[in-house]
Amino acid sequence: MQISWKQEIKSVQQITNEEILKLILKNRKIKNINEFLNPSFIDKIHIGNFGDGFKNEVKTTIQLLKKIRKNNETVVVYTDYDADGITGGAILWETLHLLGFKAIPYVPHRKNEGYGFSVKGIDNVKNEFNPALIISVDHGITAKEKVTYAKKLGIPIIITDHHLKPEQIPDDAKAIFHITALSGSGVAYFFSKMIFEEFKFSQPGNIQAQLSENFESYYLALASIGTIADLVPLVGPSRSIVYHGLKEFEHTKRVGLQCILENAGITGKPITTYEIGYIIAPRINAVGRLEHAINALRLLCTKDKAKASGLASHLGLKNRERQDLVEKSVKQALLRLEASEGKPNKIPKLIILYDPDWNEGIIGLIASKMSEKYYRPVIILTKSDGILKGSARSVGEFHITNFLRELKKYLIDIGGHQGAAGFTIEEKKLTEFNTAALGLINKHLEDKDLERKIEADIKIPLSKITLALAKTIEKLQPFGIGNPQPKFYCEGKIIDAKLMGKNNQHLKIYIKDDASFPLEILSFNNGKEFINLSKGKKIEVVISLSVNRWNSKEQLQGILINSICINK
């Protein structure tokens, strides 16, 4: 484990909490500190603020939609089945619906149709709805051949996406709104807002008011779910979406969100990026992983409380089923890796595992768990309808999608971003692919790249860690990718340590230095380290700061990220 820090504050140094906050932002290369701490409300941001402004694309889109509405033709919102796609699809479908369009949501079945556009999916849409237009949400930028296929059937396609561009984009698309700074739901939000601004005066005043309120509240909440779930950096417009969107959860009027919060047992609690990323988004994702994702979209759009309650319960059940399935499959993957590779120190730089019986809806989660455990890129494959589907996860700065594109001659298709990718491959090419991938990885990664690294924002004396500092640091919320919770490196001596939790799986450690009061530090799922902790032992810790609020009281707590005990 390598531990470093960007800045050091000495015990004799006079510095305020606000100055520490600004120091963190400066080291993170945040230029406009006031804008970062007080993100612009979303009504000041428009689709034209991105890229080249999309002037031609906007003009083409509006002209086509005017023609479609005049002729009472159908628009299909063809959305991805993950939380980002489902939330973005809900925003776009409801916007079109309230503006008087004959709009139909379409979510492909993960197993039967696969990710994004497929010939089978386009045929289904053509035969069932015969649309005058398909609009993608959270996919499409890599679907050159499928877009051409739809064009031959007489169906124009507008693409809204945020994924990494391939070498050849779908030039047969009617228009492409591609914005990598946003999530798929973020692109859908601004795309829908653009349509609303153009068509709002054609609707009654109550519809105008309803949609205006939606874009200031509910749609922001949906876009914040997609942004957090898809691990989009929380800077710029994406930070604005999440900063303002999270506030909607506290007083939402939408029964879908209300029932998700009730089912998860978090009604009335402050909703942060943690609750979205680890409680809410997994429920939306679960149905798409194990069955058809349309029920998640229905939950987000329904106005019927009883229906919403039933759907939220169903999502909760599917999420528990997903958790059990992931736990079982990860155990299988670990056994398989140990059987084939032996001891962990002999594990290759790139882990590739295949099992035809793994559920394709969870292979990305298996890859994530394995990558976290061994800190190296992981590819997990399974079999589906005669071909192999793969999901990859990366570590550090290694760009897994670019890596896989170097191996594209073995693949049917590939898509993704720096940290994650998905692809398909013929089974007969798997052995050849494995050999090539394991050879290529040595050109990209050295052993030192696979050492876990922790970079603290500041090395700071324990005497300067205070409740007031922790409350000042809260101004940086929401935390997430691109804006992680600040980490502090501190040195002190252990004055006490206790096991806690139902099964003694957690730790509570108290440390201090010569000038400080004891600091309480929580270490989750780390009870096994209790044996190494003894009073008086010197300890170096990397922690984040938390304010424990309970019964109108506030208490400073440190959350342990890593520690080193020294026998002194």
From TrEMBL:
DHHA1 domain segment(s): 349-441
GO terms assigned for molecular function: 5'-3' exonuclease activity; nucleic acid binding
Domain RecJ OB: 457-559
Keyword rRNA processing: no
Keyword field: Exonuclease, Hydrolase, Nuclease
Record-linked Gene3D superfamilies: 3.10.310.30, 3.90.1640.30
Assigned protein family: Belongs to the RecJ family.
Protein name: Single-stranded-DNA-specific exonuclease RecJ
Organism: Candidatus Roizmanbacteria bacterium GW2011_GWA2_36_23
